[in-house]
Specification:
about 240 residues; alpha+beta; elongated
C-alpha cells in the first residue's frame, strides 16, 4: 500500500519546512472553523424550525415603503392588523432589547439580549409556561403600571436553581423592579432561533428598560420608518 509511504514523505517534507507547515495547519484550522460557524448559523436560522407547535404555520410579517424594501412594522400598523385580520388565528409582536438584569437586589447586573412581547405572544404561539402564567391583556395596556416578567428556563436553572418558589420574586431590569410571574418551557428559545432571551416583558411596561419603545401614532411611525416593532404569528390556513 502506498498510503503509509506517502504519509511518511509528507511528514518529512513538512518537517523540513516548519514555516510552511504552520501556515498550512493554520489555514486548514481557519477554513474548518469558518465553515463550521457558517453552517451552525444557517442551521439555526434557516434549517431548524422554531420549537413551537405547528412551526410550519408560523409566518413573520414585515412592512415595505418607498425607502425600505423590507422593514419592521410600526406599533399602530401592528394594532390595525391584530384587530382586523381574518387570515391569522393570532397576531403577536416582539422586539429585542439589551438589559442589565440582577436576580437579587444587591447583585451585579448581567447584560443580555431580551424580548419585549405583546400580551398574546405566548398564547399565539401555543407556548405554555412550565411554572406560573404568561401575560394578561391588561398588563400590556398602560405604560409603567404592570412591571411583570416571564423568565426563560435557562435563567430559572442558572440563577434560581429551578426553585419553584421563584414566582412573585423581584428582579431588577435596567434599574426597574419586575415581578416574576412565569417560567418559559425548556426548549423554547424565543421568537428567533439564534437569540435566547433571559426574560420576556410586556411591550408597554415602562420606558426605562428599553428607550423609545412606546407606541406612537405619528405619520412617520405608521409609515414604518422607525424600527419600532416586529411581528410573528400563526396562520389559520
Amino acid at each position: 500500500m502506498r498510503f503509509p509511504a506517502n504519509l511518511r514523505f509528507a511528514v518529512r517534507t513538512l518537517a523540513k519546512s516548519p514555516s510552511f507547515a504552520l501556515i498550512a495547519i493554520l489555514s486548514l484550522a481557519l477554513g474548518i472553523g469558518a465553515n463550521t460557524a457558517i453552517f451552525s448559523y444557517v442551521d439555526a436560522v434557516l434549517l431548524r424550525p422554531l420549537p413551537v407547535p405547528d412551526s410550519g404555520r408560523i409566518v413573520e410579517i414585515d412592512s415595505t415603503s418607498p425607502d425600505t424594501r423590507l422593514g419592521r412594522l410600526s406599533y399602530p400598523d401592528y394594532v390595525d392588523l391584530r384587530d382586523h385580520t381574518k387570515t391569522f388565528q393570532a397576531l403577536a409582536c416582539y422586539d429585542f432589547f439589551l438589559a442589565g438584569i440582577a436576580a437579587q437586589v444587591n447583585e451585579v447586573p448581567k447584560y443580555s439580549l431580551n424580548a419585549a412581547v405583546s400580551a398574546n405572544f405566548f398564547n399565539g404561539l401555543g407556548i405554555h409556561p412550565v411554572l406560573g402564567r404568561t401575560f394578561r391583556a391588561e398588563e400590556d395596556a398602560v405604560a409603567g403600571r404592570d412591571l411583570v416578567a416571564v423568565i426563560s428556563h435557562h435563567m430559572w436553572d442558572r440563577d434560581f436553581a429551578r426553585d419553584r418558589s421563584v414566582l412573585g420574586r423581584r428582579i431588577r431590569v435596567n434599574g426597574s423592579d419586575f415581578t416574576i410571574i412565569g417560567v418559559a418551557p425548556e426548549n423554547f428559545t424565543g421568537p428567533q432561533a439564534f437569540v435566547n432571551p433571559d426574560i420576556y416583558i410586556p411591550c408597554m411596561p415602562t420606558s426605562r428598560p428599553f428607550r423609545a419603545r412606546k407606541p406612537t401614532t405619528s405619520p412617520r411611525a405608521r409609515a414604518g420608518t422607525p424600527s419600532c416593532w416586529g411581528g410573528s404569528r400563526r396562520a389559520s390556513m
